[in-house]
Amino acid sequence: MTTQVNKAVTKQGNRPLYTAEERARRDASPWTLVQGVLAPVQFLIFGVSLYLVVNYLRTGEHHDAAIWSVVVKTMALYTIMITGAIWEKVVFGRYLFAPSFYWEDVFSMLVIALHTAYLVALFGGWLDDRQLMLLALAAYATYVVNAGQFIWKLRMARLQVAGDTNSETATAVAA
Question: pLDDT by residue (tens digit) across 54-71?
């Protein structure tokens, strides 16, 4: 278990993912629940949209559904990014780039940039339909990587809590 707990620290030295105070703020914040609800909703929207985009690229069918599904996915992304920044401010004292989530936030900027580029290209008429769908797929690929980063951090947080609980138990038994 100690090995797993040691892995639950960030790349910035031996800092745990959450200090005790940060964990308390995280657990008390209503934004934690908001993130917990929005993340699977966004993933569901992503799944439907991905199907529509790939189906459009393969068959040419359901053009409007594919186009607008990416818009809906982008709005969901903006929502989770804004509420996530608020969550990060509550928990870590800064809106973005807290040490525990620095690289996730950096990569999130790429995800947002590609989704925003899709909207700009769509409403600006800068790309044809196939190019738009390929841009959407590029945005979705970055989203999958970023979602994986956050899932990994969720796992690390659980390992940290388990390790802290085991340490407290060991201390109590030793005393």
Answer: 999 999 999 999 999 999
pLDDT at 154: 82
pLDDT digits (tens, 9 = 90+) for 27-59: 999 999 999 999 999 999 999 999 999 999 999
Structure tokens at 99: 């040490």
Instruction: Report the pLDDT value the prediction gives residue 3, as an integer from 0 to 100.
Output: 43
- C-alpha of 140 from chain center: 12
Q: How far is CA 126 from CA 28, 78, 120, in A?
A: 45, 22, 8
